[in-house]
Amino acid sequence: MIPACNICSANEFVEYRGRAGEQCANCGAKARHRIGLEVYKRHLFPLAEERPNGRILHMAPEAALYEILKDRLGGRYLTSDAAPERYPHAPCLKLFFPQDFDLFPEGYFTAILHNHVLEHIPGHYGDHLEEFTRLLEPGGRMIISVPGPYKGIPTREGGEHLATDAERLEQFLQGDHYKLLGDDFVPSLEALRGGHLIDMGISDEQRAALSVRPGKAPFFIWQRD
Ligand SMILES: [Zn+2]
Hints:
This protein is α/β, with parallel strands linked by helices. 28% of the residues lie in helices and 21% in strands.
């Protein structure tokens, strides 16, 4: 089987930050974008079809996924970020999470997508997950990914209190990361009230078809009851 990019159909993959085969040589999609699309096919698009008026929020909308989601979802596909200038391809609403999300009533969204967002938000991630659950309608889904989660360590937070990017790089592996999510991350999702963690993304066979190493770029799908 020759791995193929599910975003552009190319068959060539190149190294990215020391990870062999991580990035599509043609469209630039990284492993988490290719897996993300696969997960959306299974867990987002059918739900969106069932609920044609349901609003879908994509935070920090990656260019590799934005056009596909926009074409597929149309006008009820919304994007937001605290720094919209980082996403010139998308009409991002400028919203800080969680404080600016008070403006949305409970159950406003059918789905919320965020990949590698939680680690950029100051504060405790458990509070943030709870706020996301408030924003979802019954049967609505949060589809998320984070760096790691790292095995064998508890979550470490507090990067927003460090003075420099260099310190954050040392403690949290990237200058703009405020936390490292560890062993408690999945149990925290499982323990969230009002819904269930229903799936953990895709199989390693499906990963291989997308040029992704076993177990890499896990996704989590949490559904409100
Ligand atoms: Zn591609």
